[in-house]
Amino acid sequence: MSAQFLEVKVKPNAGMSVLRQEAAGGWLALLRSAPVDGKANAELIGLIAKQFGCRKSAVSIKSGASGRTKLVKIEAS
Which domains does the chain have, with CATH numbers? Predict the structure, then answer.
């Protein structure tokens, strides 16, 4: 099993939910959810799972759970 790591910059309280890759190679996530009670993190995990076609359980936030820049791990099955 291999894993992929993404560095994601998060902008909560956006008008839409979008995950896109930036020119520099990093990722930007616009999230509708507010950063309260883990709602924005849960939305981010769902967006990444949808983008990469994997289960939500395969996606985890390794660092930056309470910050704007997060390191996300995607387990390959």
Answer: 3-75 (3.30.1200.10)
